[in-house]
Amino acid sequence: MPAEILNCSLWWQGPQWLSLHPVQWPVSTQSICVNFPEEKKVASANSVQISGTTTDLPWKNFFSLHHCVRIYTWVRRFLSNARKCVSDREISKTLHLSEIEQTHFLFISLAQQESFPEIFSK
Known about the structure:
By secondary structure, the protein is mainly α. It contains five helices and no strands. The longest helix is centred in the middle third of the chain and has 19 residues, at 65-83.
């Protein structure tokens, strides 16, 4: 089959009439009426819940808080982009300050929940 494609002018140039001026193209007399069945997209969501124990805190597994914040910010961007339409995704190759700050605030909140569980359990 691949050898046939190499010698097939229809594959490489298309039909001969396509090289003519559009006014000279053949006119189809057939009416095309195609009824496609309606497609319904089903959305699914996966979620992960992290318990607030000391072993689950993200910065405890990293040597550098800076390194940990940057990695978690990239992960948060990936998760955010995965939930958005392709046209709405953030495609910048660098992290924005606002994204890094949000991760810092998240880490502060987790540290507060670990240090003061009696306040957050209400």
